[in-house]
Design goal:
This protein is about 0% helix and about 10% strand. It has strands at about 15, 20, 25-30, 35. The strands form two sheets. Strands 1-2 form a two-stranded antiparallel sheet. This is MEG10 protein.
């Protein structure tokens, strides 16, 4: 928590007043501020790192 405001500083992939909510689908990073850049198969991405989770039949950095 911030020493003056008391606001939580959530780790990447987490959000909310007490950092107990994972990023919503399609979002990742600190404050869930980034959008997933994954293509084919709509497998989404890791909420902490943004690494694409490819569906069967898709491969590559962006599941393209």
């Amino acid at each position: 928590c911030h020493h003056v405001t008391g606001e939580c500083s959530c780790p990447p992939g987490w959000t909310g007043h007490d950092c107990k909510q994972p990023c919503s689908s399609g979002r990742w990073g600190r404050g869930c501020a980034n959008s997933c850049a994954c293509d084919g198969g709509d497998g989404g991405c890791d909420p902490a790192t943004g690494t694409c989770s490819c569906q069967p039949g898709f491969t590559g950095q962006h599941c393209q």
